[in-house]
């Protein structure tokens, strides 16, 4: 094992790798709680139960997708990078594709499957980098920041800190409400730990908020800590229902936009995460990432596997940097993280009682981290500022990641042409321009 993961060459040992793997798991374990609640639309009270995803099945799919994807990354790419269903992508799945566009969760999973398959093909043939390079860096940064604002808004809504207001559309909620106070407690305690640099602050914050909720009677106390693993049957293989029984639903502009959005966001999320983690670990050589193709294949294949299991897009997690900071340098740390995800399957009785006010702080804090890219956008150039701004602001304002991306991608070639910078527009951007024009004409 030491030889396979090149411990001596990278100056590491079992102790450092194990500690790094545990640290990464603690830093991202919140997804085990957050993902089932998000995909089942638990915070949407008037949504028909028959149309919701089964939270127990999603929990199992989340843990398995994370474990399998992380193991593929560990043994194929040998990187200390963990994978799991992505925050932001799961919000797009639930709140945009299902809630706003009206697609079934089975159709949404088919969209995830297609995006994963396309990702695999693009990776194998080396096309992925060409498409990424065609999209201007400012729009890439804007998408990340916009998703950050979007999931923050969702977190504030779930906590009922922000509520509907007939006069102003939105307004401040009742801060004396018990669940709202519980969420505020979670936000404050998580921010304190994050500011102090605690490892696993988001996960620990959720646990402390859960305990506080149990003490004051807002959250049910679980009857047991360890229990049987929930059945994955309600979600397993669901994409094939659309693929084989509702074929007409596949060939629509709506499905095309959904697949492209899943693909687009996963593209840049994965690339940014891999570069950040590898750079921190000192793994980049001559400004190149060794085994980058293998890492991308691990990510894309994890998305395919995750969709079949029954969860939204599985992607590389930036929280892996916490493990690297704790000493992880090789894929052995990822093996440890994957094992912990598998063990978590037996703790559903504890995780199953957690409510939206507990997960809201995680969404809000992750949103804070995601908007850090704003300072890298050149706001002084109006032709850049306009599409970037619309991309960012329209995501929370329309409650749709796809709409934000679409509006930004429409304005970019327009402002660049008017500025006389038409030579800088890649032909791919014109393709996106017409796709999103059709999207707004025929779908919205």
Give an overview of the whole structure.
The structure is a single chain. This protein has 444 residues and is mostly helical. The chain has one domain. Helices cover 64% and strands 3% of the residues. The protein is built from 20 helices and 4 strands. The strands form 2 sheets. The chain has a two-stranded antiparallel ribbon with strand order 1-4. A two-stranded antiparallel sheet has the order 2-3. A hairpin with a 3-residue loop joins strand 2 and strand 3. Helix 2 packs across helix 15, helix 4 packs antiparallel against helix 13 and helix 4 (55-77) packs antiparallel against helix 15 (331-343). The protein is globular, with a radius of gyration of 21 Å. Belongs to the nucleobase:cation symporter-2 (NCS2) (TC 2.A.40) family. Azg-like subfamily.
Task: Briefly characterize the structure.
This protein has 444 residues and is mainly α.
Please tally the β strands and state the result: 4
How far apart are the termini?
A: 54 Å
Share of helix, binned: 55-70%
Major β-sheet strand ordering: 1-4
Please compute the radius of gyration using only Cα atoms.
21 Å
Total domain count: 1
Strand percentage: under 5%
Tertiary shape: globular
Most strands sheet: 2 strands, antiparallel
Kindly report the average pLDDT value.
Answer: 85
Number of helices: 20
| Low-pLDDT ranges | none
By secondary-structure content and strand pairing, the structural class works out as: mainly alpha
**H/E element order:** HHHHEHHHHEEHHHHHEHHHHHHH
InterPro entries: Azg-like, Azg-like_bact_archaea, NCS2
Membrane topology: Multi-pass membrane protein
Family: Belongs to the nucleobase:cation symporter-2 (NCS2) (TC 2.A.40) family. Azg-like subfamily.
Protein name: NCS2 family permease
């Amino acid at each position: 094992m030491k030889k396979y993961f090149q411990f001596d060459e990278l100056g590491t040992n079992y102790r450092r790798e194990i500690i790094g793997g545990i640290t990464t798991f603690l830093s991202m374990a919140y997804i085990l709680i957050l993902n089932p609640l998000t995909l089942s639309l638990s915070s949407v009270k008037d949504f028909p139960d028959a149309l919701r995803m089964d939270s127990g099945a999603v929990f199992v799919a989340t843990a398995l997708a994370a474990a399998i994807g992380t193991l593929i990354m560990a043994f194929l790419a040998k990187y200390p990078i963990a994978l799991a269903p992505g925050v932001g992508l799961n919000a797009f799945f639930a709140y945009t594709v299902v809630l706003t566009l009206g697609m079934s969760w089975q159709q949404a999973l088919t969209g995830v499957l297609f995006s994963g398959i396309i990702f695999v093909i693009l990776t194998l043939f080396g096309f992925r980098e060409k498409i990424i390079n065609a999209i201007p860096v400012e729009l890439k940064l804007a998408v990340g920041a916009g998703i950050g604002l979007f999931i923050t808004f969702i977190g504030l809504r779930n906590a009922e800190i922000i509520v509907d207001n007939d006069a102003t559309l939105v307004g401040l909620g009742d801060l004396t409400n018990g669940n709202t106070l519980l969420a505020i407690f979670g936000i404050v305690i998580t921010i304190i730990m994050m500011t102090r640099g605690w490892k696993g602050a988001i996960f620990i914050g959720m646990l402390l908020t859960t305990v506080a909720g149990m003490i004051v009677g807002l959250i049910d106390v679980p009857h047991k800590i360890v229990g049987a693993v929930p059945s994955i049957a309600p979600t397993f293989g669901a994409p094939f229902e659309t693929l084989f029984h509702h074929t007409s639903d596949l060939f629509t502009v709506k499905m095309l936009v959904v697949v492209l959005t899943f693909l687009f966001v996963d593209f840049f999320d994965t690339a940014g995460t891999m570069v950040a983690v590898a750079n921190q670990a000192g793994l980049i050589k001559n400004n190149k990432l060794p085994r980058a193709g293998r890492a991308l294949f691990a990510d894309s294949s994890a998305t395919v596997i995750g969709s079949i299991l029954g969860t939204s897009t599985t992607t590389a997690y930036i929280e892996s940097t916490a493990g690297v900071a704790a000493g992880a340098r090789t894929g052995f740390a990822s093996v440890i993280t994957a094992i912990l995800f598998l063990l978590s399957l037996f703790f559903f009785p504890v995780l199953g009682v957690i409510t939206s006010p507990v997960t809201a702080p995680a969404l809000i804090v992750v949103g804070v981290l995601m908007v850090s890219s704003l300072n890298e956008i050149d706001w002084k150039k109006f032709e850049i500022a306009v599409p970037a701004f619309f991309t960012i602001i329209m995501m929370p304002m329309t409650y749709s990641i796809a709409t934000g991306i679409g509006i930004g991608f429409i304005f970019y070639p327009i402002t660049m042409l008017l500025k006389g910078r038409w030579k800088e527009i890649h032909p791919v951007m014109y393709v996106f321009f017409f796709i999103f024009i059709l999207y707004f004409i025929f779908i919205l």
